[in-house]
Amino acid sequence: MWRDFPYEYELDRLAIDVINGSPLLREWVDDARATPEDLELIARGDEQAWEEERLGFLLYSK
Known about the structure:
The chain has one domain. The protein contains three helices and no strands.
């Protein structure tokens, strides 16, 4: 069951979607056939983008 009343300043989206930035996580949770590997695929693109973006800010690297 997802919180279905207004959250913060959002009136048209579920709180879980606002917190996670999209409905992807909620849709994965709600899909009875979804596997952990499916979530990995969903997250991979954002994780790779984050890794690339943060490289310019690292003071020390391996």
